[in-house]
Amino acid sequence: MTGQVRGVQLARLLGQWHALPGRRRSPDYAALAGTVRGLLADGRLPLGVRLPAERELAEALRISRTTVTAAYRQLRETGHLASRRGAGSWTMLPGNHRVASTGLWTPLDDREMLDLGVAALAAPPQLLTAARAAAEDLPSYLGGAGYHPTGIIELREAVADAYAARGLPTSADQIMVTSGTQHALDLVLRLALAPGGSVLVESPTYPNALAALAGRRARITTHGLAADGWEPDLLLGSLRQTRPKLAYLIPEFQNPTGHLMPAALRERVVAAAHAVGTDLVIDESFVDLPLDGTELPPPVGVYDRHSRVISIGGMSKPYWGGLRIGWVRASAPQVQRLAAVRVGVDMASPVLDQLVAVHLLADADAIVAERRVQLAVQRDALLGALAQRLPDWRVTVPRGGVTLWAELDGPVSSALARAAEEVGVRLAPGPRFGLDGTMERFLRLPFTLPAADLVEAVGRIAAVRYDLDRTGRQRWREPAVIA
Q1: Which end of the chain is more exposed for a tag (fewer CB within 10 A), N or C?
Q2: Interior/surface letters 242-264, b for 16+ CB within 10 angstroms, e for the rest
């Protein structure tokens, strides 16, 4: 259970819910129930949350209590609400239907497939130069055992300097190098979350994070993102009501929506987390990729005075996913505890890969600037193709990151993904980014492929979308990796 939503909060989420005028105007109670079902399907209203009492919601909406009573009754009849006399009413899906939210690997890479399931770029040309330079540096490490549980000092200093340049003073002792950002998250969960512990996440969110939390048997509660990002009152209310052990947030160009959390909310989230004893795990995977000259707010850690913020990041998005280098920024004592946990997992990251990362970070300004130009061109090509071929889809233009979050013209995301694979396009359907089978009206579209490939992919998607309602049932395929 995720707590309770107040009447004024639900009223704000409902927006313009009233039935449309006309000859076939549906009753207001049906329109209200239908809007609540839509919020549940989109993941903006979590499952298991207690709705306001009928009188409270009626007052917030300025309608009769009879209308709310009838709407709640219809939601119970359709399986979207469970009520118990004297205790209240909780949201649900019909039949308690649940869909696992995890990215899975296919056994072989199909080079003819246009893969829009992975939000990552090909390697930059500077990688080869960095690899050669790293090989020349390697002999100085060969005399030792090669185990560096927190990472080699040169890389930890480079990462610490990058944080300092963003306005967050950091020492090398506060950095632990990991084998990618996902590994960083796994280690943090092993240290900070007991099996069955409670965690608050955004909805939608990164599916591999949900998989990591499932591995810890975490009790997950959600904060549903609106079209323009986080609802401050609802997010802070969720923290105060559920008092989770951890909250996993992606404030910079959130995956998959692309939203950027404003500075004022970052400060309020840290204060609320400290007040209720919640540790914040801040995923900064996309922090290096603002587009269109977007200025970044200060890091969430700037507002931390009580070691409540643990930041994770890595090289996968701005550089290359094949370079498995990530990191954790935390207090020095937390880093030492993470190193002790790590010894039971993988001992240390490869020295050669870390040396490559050092050389890439030394040339970060030039490499990342080129990436931003590349991504802006590819994003605009994808937006143009969508506007031309799928004009009924709604997309908010992201100010950074590598993904679009598209609202489709119907709840067909999973069916569309299956159909698209038949024509050589791999997609990440919306339900992968949520819980319990929601998000069927959404699709994540990364703009990490070359512009021509993106235009071609949209053309194929548009063709199968047109035929989707006219064809027989598609056979199920094994899902591909979502990254």
Answers
A1: N
A2: bebbbbbbbbbbbbbbbbbbeee
The residue type of 472 is G
Task: Using CA atoms of 98, 102, 103, 105 in order, give the dihedral in degrees to the nearest 10.
Answer: -90
> Is pLDDT above 50 for 174?
yes
Strands (E), 92-136: 114-115
Residue 436 backbone class (left: φ over 0; alpha: ψ -120 to 50; beta: rest): left
pLDDT for 311-320, tens place per residue?
Answer: 999 999 999 9
Angle between helices 28-42 and 7-14 (to 10 degrees): 90
Residue 416: Cβ within 10 Å count: 22
Query: 20 vs 14, 17, 191, 466, CA distance in Å?
Result: 15, 9, 53, 28
- Measure the CA–CA gap between 161 and 322, rounded to whole angstroms: 24
pLDDT at 445: 97
The reported pLDDT for the residue numbered 111 is 60
* pTM listed for this prediction: 0.81
> What element of type H or E holds 444?
strand 442-446
In the chain, the amino acid numbered 403 is T
User: Within a 13 Å sphere around the CA of 196, how many CA atoms are in the beta-carbon half?
Assistant: 0
321, 290 in Cβ contact below 8 A?
A: no
Distance CA 117, CA 445 (A): 8
Say if CB 192 and CB 309 are below 8 A apart: no
Which residue is listed with tokens 């994003």?
Answer: 379
State how beta strands 246-249 and 198-203 pair.
parallel
